[in-house]
Amino acid sequence: MTDIFPYQFSQLKVDEDYPKNIVDNWGGWPESWLIEPGVTRLDAALHHPNGKFYFFRGSEYCRYDPKRRTMDDDYPRNIVDVWTGWPSSWINDDGETRVDAAFYSGSKRKVYFFKGDEYIRYAPGVGVDDDYPKITANEFNGWHLMNVGSAKCAVSTGSRDVVFMGQGRWAGYRMGHGNDGGGIMPQSPDGWPTGTQWDNPDAGLDSTKWGRCYIFKGSQYLRLSQD
């Protein structure tokens, strides 16, 4: 499996003919997630160790099979009903929740979810770890140096590495180490769309098997690849 390390994020290149419309290119999008015909948006996304892609919007999530290039049946589902041990402080009076960003860490074998200034750590097949949520800035070493604000877009770029985006910036982070460089959007990577729309993406998704990652904003997405 090819790893894209954070210090190489600036060397990635936006593929030609992007951005593209999400609904037009990701098969089986649920109608209940359409804001209007052909239009959707995301809150978060992650590449799960089971090989599936997970998309989150509001209180629900969908599971996408990249081999079949379509959503799995019987989705969307309610986050709280399926992700065991979801913290009560993250659930509103209507029994619903949401997430701002998510990624899977191969070195920790955990899924990390972010909401506001907090995060939780989830063990696949088990549930949310004890003593969560925690304050992101207190637990992620050097968080204040990254200047990305609260986590709104996170992309796992290797077994120990993740890129956070926000406030017009991207920042690399190495699990167990801390801040590992960064830059201003859209100076990097090459081909990033001009204008302010893409300065603060909604969600990110890695596909390191192919040396790619996907960045989502509004109804569109980018595909980034290694040269």
If you had to describe this structure to a student in words, what would you say it looks like?
This protein has helices at residues 22-25, 79-82, 136-139, 143-146, and strands spanning 13-14, 20-21, 44-47, 53-57, 60-65, 70-71, 77-78, 101-105, 110-115, 118-123, 127-128, 134-135, 153-156, 161-166, 169-174, 178-184, 203-207, 212-217, 220-225. It has 227 residues and is mainly β. The protein has a single domain, classed as Hemopexin (4 Propeller), CATH 2.110.10.10. The strands form four sheets. Strands 1, 2, 17, 18 and 19 form a five-stranded antiparallel β-sheet that branches. It comes from Actibacterium atlanticum.
CATH fold name, please?
A: Hemopexin
Residue ranges: pLDDT <50 for 5 or more in a row? none
CATH level 1 class label: Mainly Beta
Summed up, the domain count is 1
Secondary-structure content class: mainly beta
Strand count, sense and barrel status of the largest sheet are: 5 strands, antiparallel
InterPro entries: Hemopexin-like_dom_sf, Hemopexin-like_repeat
Protein name: Hemopexin
Organism: Actibacterium atlanticum
Set down the secondary structure blueprint:
Layout: E1 13-14, E2 20-21, H1 22-25, E3 44-47, E4 53-57, E5 60-65, E6 70-71, E7 77-78, H2 79-82, E8 101-105, E9 110-115, E10 118-123, E11 127-128, E12 134-135, H3 136-139, H4 143-146, E13 153-156, E14 161-166, E15 169-174, E16 178-184, E17 203-207, E18 212-217, E19 220-225
Antiparallel strand pairs: 1-19, 2-19, 3-4, 4-5, 5-6, 5-7, 8-9, 9-10, 10-11, 10-12, 13-14, 14-15, 15-16, 17-18, 18-19
Organism: Actibacterium atlanticum
Protein name: Hemopexin
